[in-house]
Amino acid sequence: MSQETILLPNGGFQWVLSNKERESIANALDTDGQTLSSIKGNVIGRARETCSGCGKLSGLDDFVKNAVDLGVHSKSFILGVLTDGVKRETPSHALQCSGCGTHFEGVFPWVVDMAI
Questions:
Q1: What single string gives the DSSP state of each residue in 76-116?
Q2: What are the backbone dihedrals phi and psi of residue 24, each rounded to the nearest 5 degrees, phi first?
């Protein structure tokens, strides 16, 4: 397991937010890094996956870019989830690499009430 991923006692995985991911998220949400400074990462029901196209690790930036590009959620809604955490059951998400567009295998389930 990489340093960017920590296995938690509840079986979830803490995806530690890197500076590069934070910058990518800030750009996607048209905000500054200061707004995201308190966000340490997120908790997902599986470990990060390495993109078969470019080698990038799956990350919170992929969730954000996918949601923005597809128009699934507003930028303000996404920012609220990032700062306040996931508060209700949320469907698992298929992810596309924000670096090259390759689809990651399988789906990525959010873990509720585990914002970090």
A1: HHHHHHHHH---S----EEEE-TTT-PEEEEEE-B-TT---
A2: -65, -40
Model pTM? 0.88
Give the phi and the psi of residue 7 in degrees, each rounded to 5.
-75, 130
pLDDT mean for each 10 residues of the chain (116 residues): 79 90 95 87 91 96 95 91 77 94 94 58
Token output for 65:
């870019």
The pair phi, psi for residue 95, each rounded to 5°, is: -125, 145
The tokens describing 38, both together, are 């308190």
Structural contact between residues 25 and 82, judged by C-beta atoms closer than 8 angstroms:
yes
Pull the structure tokens for residue 55: 């080698």
Give the length of the chain. 116
